[in-house]
Structure prediction request, 686 residues.
Amino acid sequence: MREPLGTWVAALLTLMVFSYLVSDNPLYRLAEHLFIGSALGYAIVVSIQDVLLPRLFTPLARDPVGYWHLLIPLLLGLLLLTKGRVSTAWLGNTSVGFLFGVGAALAIGGALVGSLLYQVRDTMLPLLPGKGDGGSVIDNLILVVGTLGSLAYFYFTAGGEREAAGLRGGALRLGSVVGKWFIMITLGALFANAVMARVSLLVGRLQFLLGDWLGIL
Amino acid sequence: MLYCPHCGTSNREGSKFCNNCGQPLPPSLGQKCSQCGHLNPPGVFSCVRCRASLLAPSDEGLPPEEAPPEPSEEPEWLQGLEEEAPWEPEEALEGIEEEPEWLRELGAPADEARVVAEEEVPPEESAPWLEALEGLVKEAPLEPLEKEGLLAGIRGTLRVEPIFAIPHRIGEVAFPPLAGADQAARFKGVVSQPLAPVAVEERPRARRDQILSWLFYLILAAAVVGGILLGGGSVNLPLTQATADFYKTIESLEEGSVVLLSHDYDPGTAAEITPQVSAILDHLMRRGAKIVNLSLTPEGQALADRALESAVSDYEGYIQGRDYINLGYVAGNEVGARFIAEGLGPRLSPYPLGEGVGGLEDVNLIVVLAGSQEHLRRWVEQVQAPYKVTMVAGVSAQVDLAARPYYRSGQLKGLLSGLVGAAEYERVNQHPGVALSRMLPQAAAHLVIALFILLGNFAYLVERLGGRG
Prediction:
């Protein structure tokens, strides 16, 4: 009984969302609000069930002395609630500072070690035919030219008119033109991938309507 | 309206005193000067011609009671004081000893000068300019008498000048020309135009665009439904290198290897990634791997449960806790990923699956299923790079361009991209599933979109050439 009801609810909500293609209407708005509300409610329940209860409240209730260090995140979390009122908002600054500090430190360190160094190293490629085949040389050439051109396109401090007319300025202008084309191709690929992802979603929904709901398939 | 010259308050016409400060107000109507007879404008205290005061009548016109008091009319207390202590200069100087020598030397010329000053200058010795000045002084009008107070009866002690509190008036101010004034004028012109003709012109075009949109939706839906009804799996998909590498990585796992699956996606990208998860779980279970599931998104854990439930139904020997487990939602984004890397052993220790798993070093493979590039980057930057773990990823098609550099640099050993990647995996795994069945409608939709793009560009080209002609 539960499964057919869920299928019907899902099918009706899918049709309500599709009704936006005709025009904006209350049914679409209702489905949108239901989706946002249920997603938020679900996230809260999961956070309580999977994070707060097993990792904070249950250990503290079982052995407060042994898990005394959990009082620190509990206190920081409670201080965050003071952000709701302007007069007491300053009390939560420590918690926010802690969150931002740890998050920024991990993100910056990770980006340097995990992305930037690897990507720079991966751009140092041989451009002359050697032991590898000709295809890899062309591949490397495209990669290096595309990377340098894209960097040149975002080089905004080329100097004055005198410098721009020189060799350096000419190389930068040429590089930025090449980089612009590479960026345009990249954006085109991004758009195509986004369309492909949405079409996959559309296929999935229509397959659900035809198969699970209507039983045609 | 009368304005008070002292405080500037506006008072009713005809008022004699200010309502705010109580000071006398100037006459509101023109007032005739008692000295020269000139009719003065309202609001002035003295005659504009002869400067005689208009506040009080002239000396001649003073009423008898306001005339200066006679000496006999002095108050008794003042007369008593004068009789008791008459001031005698000789007596006052009695106590002073002989004057000093320097003063005695100066005394003679000073006395002479005083005598000369007190003498009357004979008329024949006075200068002509002095005589002219004397005439002017004589002709000057007399200052008004003080009427009240201690200075009553004394003339010209305090010369009262009228003070006018004239309200500040803003005249014509020439503002500098505003930047963009012509644009503002043009905007005003556009706004002030009547709307009706514009609406009449735009309506057919908007209606036509709307009909074209509906037509496009219908054709797209027909192509997708037609593809679904015709059935999939017949499309000859080429196997990309990234998918082949993904397959080889899992294929190389030994039985009992520990694999960490992170389900970092939501319902918005589940249509692409759920088929990937089904194919990967099928392959992992066939290889006999121990699967640890978790999620960095709240929705991911529910989707993981559903996928595990579906996969386990085909492999009944797989037991929860011993062969697979779902650790659920891990909060904290970057911190959460690092937390798993540092504390995986204690999290798994309560379960039979965790025997022999001390930490991340005992994990043979991490599979990241990412609906957004942020989730993929978190795992690569926070876990793969610092701990050098073998990692593969299945991502949504829109994340493909962000994931490709990590695959090329070797940080990802394999990569599945979108629904196409899932279909390729099903094909190479020889286990056809939902992804392959969706390839035909997906291809049909791509074809329709490409045709419409070409058609639109062609129409634009024709319109542009026609406009030139």
In short: The interface with chain B takes residues 21-22, 39, 42-43, 46-47, 50-51, 102-103, 106-107, 110-111, 113-115, 118-119, 121-122, 186, 189-190, 193-197, 199-207, 210, 216-217 of chain A (CB under 8 Å). The CA atoms of residues 133 and 157 of chain A lie 39 Å apart. The mean pLDDT of chain A is 90. The helical segments of chain A are 2-18, 26-62, 71-81, 93-123, 134-153, 161-164, 167-213.
